Amino acid sequence: MNNHETAEQLKEIVREKYSQIAQQSKEQNETGCCGAGCCDTVDYVVMAEDYSKLPGYEKNADLGLGCGLPTEFAMIKTGDTVVDLGSGAGNDCFVARSLTGEQGKVIGIDFTEKMIEKARANAIRLGYSNVEFRQGDIENMPLAGAVADVVVSNCVLNLVPNKQQAFAETFRVLKKGGHFSVSDIVLSGDIPAGLKKSAEMYAGCVAGAISLDEYLGIIRQAGFTEVKIQKSKRIHLPEEILTQYLTPTEIEAFTTGEPGIFSVTIYAEKPVNCCAPGCCD
């Protein structure tokens, strides 16, 4: 099996999983073992943050799939054009719209057709004419270059097989001087191999994650500057989950030592003056 086939297979796993989740409520996702059916892996509620008190929050768009609150850290201003990568049912887009106002524009990108359908239905019901959703791959965004003031993403980029290409595309669609704030899952230290094996756990935002150092290196390699961690939080997995993958000795080391799974929110800027690919689009 070559790398292309592996990447496409992983994308299909994620597509199928999130197509199922799109048809369920947040409550079903929180109580249904990883959201859709019982897949014996991480429950999304372990990762999710509470959006309910944020301006623009729309309950019908909240499927409980995030691992942070990137819009809180994204410094979105009135009139900005914001792009949300992996927009799901539209939750982060609607929160972003409350910050851009009617003068701004919000574009959500998701490669799951059923998520796009749900997000569009939510936007129509809310009467938002400046929020749109486009079906597409984050590795090849359906956007022209230099259109976004701000890019946000919530627990999605770790699911993308080619993270280098995803961040190169993020760089391309941002205006000079624009920035991103993304929440994602990263690893610290040596995670036991048993915790990485399940493809279902990949769709649950853990085994698709890479180390924080590698993640930050990919961002810098794409040409971004002013890279910083805005928030970091250890993910505490329930013991009944860990026992399916780890020995008692491994569980003790995993819960008390350096190795761990973290939700981080990362900020970076596209420089005003640069020579990197995508700067002159």
Topology:
Elements: H1 3-22, H2 26-31, H3 70-73, E1 81-85, H4 91-100, E2 105-110, H5 113-126, E3 131-135, E4 148-154, H6 163-173, E5 174-188, H7 199-203, H8 212-221, E6 225-234, H9 239-242, H10 248-256, E7 260-269
Parallel strand pairs: 1-2, 1-4, 2-3, 4-5
Antiparallel strand pairs: 5-7, 6-7
Helix pairs in contact: 1-5, 6-8
CATH class: Alpha Beta
Describe the largest sheet: 7 strands, mixed
Q: What name does CATH use for the topology?
A: Rossmann fold
Structural class by sheet pairing and helices: alpha/beta
As a whole number of angstroms, the C-alpha radius of gyration is 18 Å
Give helix and strand order, one letter per element, not per position: HHHEHEHEEHEHHEHHE
First-to-last CA distance: 36 Å
- Count the strands? 7
Overall pLDDT: 79
CATH architecture assignment name: 3-Layer(aba) Sandwich
Percent of sequence in beta strands: 15-25%
Regions with little confidence, pLDDT below 50 for 5+ residues: 25-46
Question: What is the number of helices?
Answer: 10
CATH homologous superfamily placement: Vaccinia Virus protein VP39
**Inertia-based shape:** globular
* Order of strands, widest sheet: 3-2-1-4-5-7-6
